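Limitations
The structure tokens in this dataset are predictions for the assembled complex, not deposited experimental models. Users should treat interface geometry with appropriate caution, especially where small molecules or nucleic acid strands are included. An illustrative entry is reproduced here so readers can see what is and is not provided.
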Amino acid sequence: MIKRSGQILYAIFTAAILCAGMWLLAFATPPVVAAQGDADVTVDHPPTDSDCLVCHTENTSQQMTLANGSQLSIAVEHDALLNSVHGTTLEDGPLACTDCHGEDIFPHDAPPAASIREYRITQSNICIDCHREEADSLGDDVHYTALVEGNHRAATCVDCHGAHDVQGPQRSDLDIAQACGDCHQIVYSEFSQSVHGEALTAGDPNVPTCIDCHGVHSIQHPTTALFRNRSPELCADCHADEQLMAEYDITTNVFDSYLSDFHGTTVALFEQEAPNVATNKAVCYDCHGVHDIARADASNSHVIRQNLLSTCQECHPGATADFPDSWIGHFPPTLETHPFLFLVNLFYTILIPVVVGAFVLLVLTDIFRRIRQRLSGNRHRT
Ligand code: HEC
Ligand code: HEC
Ligand code: HEC
Ligand code: HEC
Ligand code: HEC
Ligand code: HEC
Ligand code: HEC
Ligand code: HEC
Ligand code: HEC
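Predicted assembly:
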């Protein structure tokens, strides 16, 4: 009996201590009064967006000075955030500042990075917290690998997506190319003048943008054997699509003709037998170029007649002026383009049925003759 009431007293005592503790935590935490830059601001816990926006207005001229002396504006465009994928379209309402920056961001400590670049790289970890899937696929990505190896110029989530103004898949293919072009300026300027890039700039959704060929979050080094050997299939995705190519009056024979010629056959065999050894045979981009692909009949095309020889010479150094004729191209030979080949083909298309037909006829008449002979011989014997 005494033991039982002791237990009850003990329980009441612990409950009272717990309640007091919770009351202290909930109501008695003193408001944080922080002098941050020019303003004295009082923030209740947990801080809301409007607390942050007191200082982080769009128009503030205030700067954050980093250890290396560089300055970063602390102005935040709240509207850009509200209009982003993390804004008003989210089911549970826009993300709060503290969803990304954490509740203990304020009051601020010393600036968290030594340079603007370092700041962006560390802040990109914010994205990874919620987007694990994308982060996981970065495992062997060229940019991610470069970052890990200490190349701070390589792309982070924020470089490609932005921070407060992240856009979703409605972002246009041109916007994507421009985002890559921020860093890959030479490639971008070459690409924007190519047959694909010009169409992209004009708003054509059917031409490739950077990520159609390179992928998104698992970009590989395009100089690997696997990338090279598979590249004809990359082009074939579109150039073997009859419906798509009909719109542009471009032949889809390019892929079939490529596979049936000596270069293509060996590349295709190669891919099956030794996918990790780069083929030395011509793939589409050896002849057409990569980011500077032009219309086949444009004066700057690598494959127009007057430039074709030097294109072949990259791999056939001894090739002379008539060498390109040794490859009939993507089109079946015609009387005008390749009269000799055309006539040879024609000759065979006529000759073979004639020879085979004659041979069959010969055999048949022979059989017939023998049967007749046998029949008449039999008659003689009886
Ligand atoms: C009293 C004004 C004030 C308030 C309120 C305030 N900040 Fe700041 N904030 C600053 C100043 C000034 C800096 C520059 C830092 C420095 O110079 O130490 C800064 C820097 C920052 C930075 C960059 C540095 C870092 O640590 O990443 C972020 C992010 C930030 N604030 C977010 C917030 C958020 C989120 C809130 C609301 C929870 C908030 N701030 C509330 C004034 C304020
Ligand atoms: C979706 C996540 C996200 C949300 C929501 C968010 N931020 Fe940021 N914020 C970032 C990232 C990432 C950076 C780093 C940007 C960079 O380095 O270019 C950043 C940078 C900053 C900076 C440093 C200056 C700058 O622009 O680089 C300030 C200040 C800041 N945020 C304040 C805020 C405030 C205030 C809010 C709420 C109105 C807010 N942020 C909401 C992700 C977010
Ligand atoms: C607090 C969690 C959170 C953080 C941090 C966050 N996001 Fe998001 N993000 C979401 C949610 C929720 C959605 C909408 C649902 C969805 O599509 O996944 C979204 C959507 C997106 C989308 C559009 C996806 C689609 O398919 O429509 C992109 C792109 C994106 N976020 C990029 C980023 C980047 C870049 C950062 C860092 C600057 C970041 N996110 C930080 C939660 C977050
Ligand atoms: C080299 C540029 C680049 C980098 C780095 C990058 N992304 Fe992307 N990301 C893209 C492109 C391009 C798309 C697809 C089209 C679009 O919506 O812009 C995309 C799509 C997304 C989407 C939409 C859903 C999906 O998978 O298609 C999310 C979410 C996303 N990225 C998050 C991230 C996060 C988080 C990081 C960092 C861990 C990151 N991205 C790094 C370029 C990049
Ligand atoms: C912030 C700058 C930046 C952005 C944005 C960026 N890249 Fe890169 N990228 C780099 C750097 C730096 C390297 C070199 C990495 C290395 O190999 O050390 C690189 C490497 C590459 C490579 C490997 C070939 C090479 O030269 O090393 C490819 C392919 C590539 N990027 C494609 C893209 C595509 C596609 C996009 C857009 C979706 C993009 N990049 C956006 C900086 C960037
Ligand atoms: C039609 C497919 C295709 C498109 C579109 C494309 N690339 Fe490439 N890219 C390639 C191929 C193929 C290579 C490999 C070339 C080689 O090995 O000679 C390459 C190589 C690269 C390289 C490394 C070599 C170099 O030239 O620096 C980078 C970086 C690169 N591309 C970035 C981009 C960017 C950025 C865009 C968009 C503006 C883009 N690519 C558009 C197919 C493409
Ligand atoms: C995403 C689809 C797509 C991919 C991938 C693609 N192309 Fe194209 N390509 C097109 C379209 C569409 C056009 C027509 C553009 C126009 O005429 O405005 C075109 C035009 C061309 C032309 C010009 C044809 C002419 O009119 O003479 C050549 C050459 C070409 N592509 C070669 C390639 C090569 C080589 C590759 C692979 C490295 C490739 N393309 C990958 C869609 C694609
Ligand atoms: C050995 C060099 C060579 C290779 C390899 C090659 N091409 Fe061509 N391509 C040419 C030449 C030369 C032309 C000009 C027309 C012709 O003679 O067939 C051409 C024309 C084209 C055209 C324009 C067709 C039209 O209707 O005007 C396209 C598209 C094309 N090639 C795509 C490709 C694709 C895709 C591949 C890879 C599957 C490829 N080419 C491989 C040399 C090559
Ligand atoms: C990327 C390198 C490359 C390019 C560019 C290239 N070829 Fe070839 N080509 C090869 C290789 C490798 C072989 C196989 C040689 C062998 O097996 O002896 C070959 C074989 C040939 C053959 C078979 C006869 C022989 O020499 O073995 C002909 C014909 C040929 N190429 C014509 C052309 C023509 C025409 C062009 C330009 C339109 C061209 N090639 C461009 C690499 C290339």
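Some entries come with short summary sentences. For this one: Residues 195-196, 199, 206-208, 212, 234-235, 237-239, 248, 250, 284-285, 288, 293, 295-296 surround heme C (ligand 7) (CB under 6 Å).
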